[in-house]
TrEMBL record:
Entry-linked Pfam families: Gon7
Localisation per UniProt entry: Chromosome, Telomere; Nucleus
Primary localization: nucleus
Function: Component of the EKC/KEOPS complex that is required for the formation of a threonylcarbamoyl group on adenosine at position 37 (t(6)A37) in tRNAs that read codons beginning with adenine. The complex is probably involved in the transfer of the threonylcarbamoyl moiety of threonylcarbamoyl-AMP (TC-AMP) to the N6 group of A37. GON7 likely plays a supporting role to the catalytic subunit KAE1 in the complex. The EKC/KEOPS complex also promotes both telomere uncapping and telomere elongation. The complex is required for efficient recruitment of transcriptional coactivators.
Record protein name field: EKC/KEOPS complex subunit GON7
Keyword Transcription recorded: yes
Amino acid sequence: MTSPTATYTSPDTTKTFHPGNGTHTTYGQTTQISDIVLNAGGEDRDKPSEHNDTPLGHLRAELTTLQDQINVYLTERMSSTTSQQS
């Protein structure tokens, strides 16, 4: 099975994301509830289950990795744009 990819395109850049080799899980770094909520006693009631050891299960875990990569990249872009405007 081929790994998924995603391409972000804007007027000034194009970036392609690939989950890469390695361990992938369904526990995304950027898709959980915030640390502020957790520290206040909140609970992540939508926490994902572990992926199955099947082709679709592995795809699900790779998509979570891909989503994390995209979220980190876009957050960095927003941060750099905000600091340039200040």
